[in-house]
Amino acid sequence: MSSAAPPGRGPKVRAAVLAATVDELSEHGYAALTVEKVARRAGVHKTTVYRRWPDRDVLIADALAESVAADLPIPDTGAIDSDLSSLARSLVVWVKSPGGRAILAVMLSDAVGLARPPDQIRHVFRDRIRGALPVVERAIGRGELPTGTNAAELLKTMVAPIYLRALITGEPLTESTADSAARLALTAAHAGLFESE
Amino acid sequence: MSSAAPPGRGPKVRAAVLAATVDELSEHGYAALTVEKVARRAGVHKTTVYRRWPDRDVLIADALAESVAADLPIPDTGAIDSDLSSLARSLVVWVKSPGGRAILAVMLSDAVGLARPPDQIRHVFRDRIRGALPVVERAIGRGELPTGTNAAELLKTMVAPIYLRALITGEPLTESTADSAARLALTAAHAGLFESE
User: Which CATH number do you get for residue B99?
Assistant: First the structure.
């Protein structure tokens, strides 16, 4: 659980509602999601949902953040190459999963001319990059990467080829895709491409 | 014109119909596009459209390919770094343009749970990468890049960070984004990341 839940059956209700939210997104998309449908799916009354989440966008942002945090764990293997491969491999699995597809669909609604999700939802991606910054910062601390390496730029360079395959080229996404993406980011980092001016 | 047109007012009709197709896609999206609407917009009878394009997907694929070819010209400046920067800068302008947004929306329809476009449409991206392969092959011939460099992998690595910004992070897309993307691809190529096993 990423935030405090009330005592009693709170945590179970929270988990059920968040899971129902991701399932609704997977099956029917962002525009069609209502608090009523989520409540019905989770087997709770809609006032129970509104008591914890003031509106559907807060609910969706919370559900996406929780799902991403569970599916994209932050590794700490003690070496940057295995940490990056682990991150990239998790991402490859995630973009192919129903939850990942659902979240990408929400993120892309605006690009395809559907409803534009509010910033709190669009920031789920940025927040996960933030969550992974320590992977790079620990590597700088161990002397594996140049001091001054911009951790966010390194991570975005690593994930870009994975999203390109998932969204544009449709090419297969494998562990080898993930490892190549990790190698690309590391090569660029060692060449100093992410060092601040 | 990318294919032979009949004599008389053929080329004008062709250009008007293809432009009307891109405009319809921009304004109403892939699912809503019909040959009737395109014909009305282009000011021709729908049988005139059907005489040249057997169905709407052939029409859409042709319109997208023509639009991409016009907006993403293949440079030949004599040096790989300026060629790649030029390609990347064109792409940055294109992904922000109405035509580019429309084409991306079609490409992404499947990812967001809308109608899946047929392969002939999805291949517009692949075909443009193919069109740009000579840029890399000429550089290998000039000795600027290692022999055996996989040209398609180099180009996809270059475009990936641009699509990531356009589709996922929403960060600004500038000439500096383009030049960084070109530098990334070149650095990886010089490090041998795109050489076949």
Answer: 1.10.357.10
Do B24 and B108 sit in the same domain of this protein? no
> What residue numbers bound the domain in which A20 lies?
9-65
Q: How far is CA A17 from CA A6, A95, A102, B123, in A?
A: 14, 22, 16, 40
The total number of structural domains that make up chain B = 2
Q: Which residues of A99-133 are buried (b: 16+ CB within 10 A; e: fewer)?
A: bbbbbbbbbbbbbbbbeebeeebbbbbbebbebbe
From chain A, the residues in CB contact with B156 under 8 A are 161, 164, 169
B114, B126, B187 ranked by CB distance to A169: nearest: B126
Does some domain include residue B91?
yes
**How many angstroms separate the CA of residue B187 from the nearest CA in chain A?**
7
Q: What is the pTM of this model?
A: 0.89
Q: Are residues B134 and B159 in the same domain?
A: yes
Residue-level pLDDT, tens digit, chain B, 197 residues: 444 444 446 789 999 999 999 999 888 888 889 999 999 999 999 999 999 999 999 999 999 999 999 999 999 999 999 999 999 999 999 999 888 888 888 888 766 666 677 787 878 888 899 999 999 999 999 999 999 999 999 999 999 999 999 988 889 999 999 999 999 999 999 999 999 75
Q: Is B72 on the interface with A (CB under 8 A)?
A: no
